Amino acid sequence: MELKYGASREKPREDAAMQRFRGHRVGQFIHWGLYALPAGRWEGKDVEFAAEFLPRVAKVPQQRWEALANDFTLADFDAERWADTAVALGARYMTITTKHHDGFCLWPSAHTDFHMGNTPSGRDVLGELVAAYEARGIDVNFYYSVLDWRHPDWRFTLENDADNLAFARYLDFAMKQLEELAERYPSVKGFWFDGTWDESVKANGWWTWEVERMLKERLPGVVVNSRLRADDLGARHVDSNGLLMGDYESGYERRLPEPWDRSVAARDWEACMTIPQASWGYHQGPWAQSTLKHPWDVVDMIAHCTSLGGNFLLNFGPRGDGSMAPAEVEIARTVGEWLAVNGEAIYGCGYAEGWDYPGWGYFTRDSSTGKVFAVVTRAPASGRIRLELPTGLELVGLRLLGSGEYPFKGLADSVFEVELGGASNAGPRVFAVETSALAH
Ligand code: FHN
């Protein structure tokens, strides 16, 4: 089918910027805005829903929401400390909400007055963050919500000519903001779009195509997620011919693909995940705070994504005073300590073709050296794992990362057993698997 605004390529991008993004594997997502101040509580009541949805769920009058800007004093904000958290986590990139659904902007935008520049400190926190992260070698990507609850021209649906006119103005406004972001922060490495699911956006696939074109023209190498895109017929992410739009699939949100579904590995993709069950912005209530993931759950998800050629973007919700939540900092530290020992099996790694999903964890393969790793995230109660190699291979060596050579026992051609011993405090074990062709 002839599409004007469909996918721009049939195969994954292979340029240096894309390979860099693909090799990162671990990213830090940050949701920060006015919603961090009430942090899920309004008029003394916990609202058991994502904190960034509070204005909608608690039906907060617009004026009162906007008045929060006066309390956004950044009393404890330090971009350097945030960037240190990313380093501790072992993140290779960071994606930050420049504007979420409430329309508040973290940079002093010339196209609205609802921005950080009009808060008591007047600081350009986005600029500070870009500088702090990049100084540590961490790439910065911008999240931008196309959906905007505050803008008078935003429409969910287009019912009549007046809606069409208003929404055309809105799209023009959003385009200008995106041009502004590209111009003010030209070192940004990627754009992560959200809030594109409404009928109004789907009816304007041309605009999503134009945004991608504009960004790529102004920022060579920039990487754009599939969630931005709709085609001529309103198909999202994947066009009406079945081809991925944007540079990587970004539909996995608080869920991962089935670990045995190798079809996923044919495309670049990224999954994003909250630390509490379901809030992206900081939520102070027990609804969120009693559901924080364990660091080894996070490690499992990182390995899971890597094993299918995807990136994992772990979300942090800093608090209203600008400080990172201590529990999240602690999780970052533990995951990062694991990655410091075992990152060889994650960074620059991907799907290990020919190696079946083992059940006790994941196989990953270094994309440049071809080395295969076994990441044991779910050690069986027996304390033993069975390593089944692709037919025709035999195991010639096993190295436990962070330790050294490790014993194993042959059971049959290409089938081996590894005795793990007791549980490890250092988290999931990783073995580098050395093979050679079976001699018969
Ligand atoms: O509604 C948002 C939500 O607040 C959060 O930003 C997530 C992140 O992927 N995206 C939307 C829901 O899909």
Can you describe this structure?
It is built from eleven helices and 18 strands. The protein has an eight-stranded parallel beta sheet with strand order 7-6-5-4-1-10-9-8. The mean pLDDT is 97. By secondary structure, the protein is of the alpha/beta class. β5, α6 and β6 form a beta-alpha-beta unit. α6 (161-184) runs parallel beside α8. The longest helix is centred in the middle third of the chain and has 24 residues, at 161-184.
Secondary-structure topology with pairs:
Elements: H1 16-24, E1 26-30, E2 41-42, E3 45-46, H2 54-57, H3 62-67, H4 79-89, E4 93-99, H5 125-135, E5 139-145, H6 161-184, E6 190-194, H7 199-202, H8 205-218, E7 223-224, E8 249-253, E9 269-273, H9 286-289, H10 295-307, E10 310-316, H11 326-342, E11 349-350, E12 362-366, E13 372-376, E14 384-388, E15 393-400, E16 409-412, E17 415-419, E18 429-437
Parallel strand pairs: 1-4, 1-10, 4-5, 5-6, 6-7, 8-9, 9-10
Antiparallel strand pairs: 2-3, 11-12, 12-13, 13-18, 14-17, 15-18, 16-17
